[in-house]
Amino acid sequence: MAGQEAVQKFCAYCGSDGPFSREHIWPRGIIKRVPDYDARYFGNPDKVLSAEHTIRDVCTACNNGVLSELDAYGCRLFDDYFHLTDTRGAPVHFRYDFDLILRWLLKISYNASRSVGIYTEYLQRCVPYILGAEDTIKDVWLLAVLVEPVTGIIRGVYDELPPYGVRAARVETAEDVPLPFIVRLVAVNAFYFLLVITKDGEAANFALAKRLLPGKQVPRTRRSVWLRPSGLDTRDVWLGHMVDKDHLYREHFARRRSKSGEGLVSADLAATRSSRPERHPFQPHTSRDTGNRSRER
Ligand SMILES: [Zn+2]
Predict the structure, then answer these.
(1) Distance from the CA of 135 to the center of ligand 1, in angstroms?
(2) Which end of the chain, N or C, is less surrounded by CB atoms within 10 Å?
(3) Any domain includes 212
(4) Structural domain total, the chain
(5) For residue 12, how far is its CA from the centre of ligand 1 (angstroms)?
(6) How many angstroms separate the CA atoms of 231 and 146, rounded?
(7) What does the pLDDT read at residue 286?
(8) How far does residue 165's CA lie from ligand 1's centre (Å)?
C-alpha cells in the first residue's frame, strides 16, 4: 500500500534501514534502579504518564551493540555514585572514564532531543563519537552539579524533597541573548550533568559557559574529580517545573487511582502514610528552573 511505502526510516545512529527495535531513552537498567520514579513527564505531547520514554528509530544492531555497552557503563556509575540522593555529608570523589561517560550522556540527550524534536541537529554531529567511530569530540564540555535535598516546608506541603529520579532536558541560560552553544541537562538522582555543545559554525566559548552555568568541570584530561555540594537544591531545580506542570501530575495520579480501583500505588501509599500529597518525580523537557538559577549566578 502507498501509505506503508511512505514510511521509510533510517537508524538515527548508523543510518541503516533496520530492523528496528524500541530504544529506551533511559536505559532499562537505570529505570529499574529508580523504581519509585513512575510518573514521567513527556514534553511531546505535554503529558505525565507511567509509560517509559521510548523511541523507535534505532536499529537492533546499534541498540544491542554499542549503545547497550554505554548503558552498562552508566549502570556501573549508578551503583558506584548515582544512587546517592543526599550528598551533603562529604565531597564525592567521582572517578570516570571521560569518553564513556560523555558518550553515554550524549546518547541519552540525543534520544531525548529526538523525542521532542528540539536541538536534534546539534546532537546529530555527536553520533560518530557516541558510536565510538571517532575517538574524541571537539567543543563539547561537561559540568557536574550535586543537587541537594530540600528540607523544610515547600509549597506548604513537603517537608523533605530529595533529588530522586532521572531527567533529560534542555537548559535555557538566558532568554534574549543568543549564545554560541546549547546546554543539555542529563540528571540521575543527585548528579546533574550539563552538556555544553558548541553550535555549528560558532566559535567555542567555554569560558562564557562556565560563567553562566553552575557546576564543576569534568575534565577530559583526568580520571577523577572532587564534587562538592553546589548550593543548588531540589527547590532551585524543580520548583519551576512543579508549578508549571502540577496539574498534569495531579491528573496522572487521579487517573491511576481510578484505574486501579481501590489499589493504592506506591506514591499514594507514601502520601497516605505521611498525610502529604504525592511526591512528584520529574523529567521535564524544558527546564526554566535550572535556567533561571543560572542567570542569577
Ligand atoms: Zn543503527
Answers:
(1) 19
(2) N
(3) yes
(4) 1
(5) 7
(6) 8
(7) 36
(8) 28
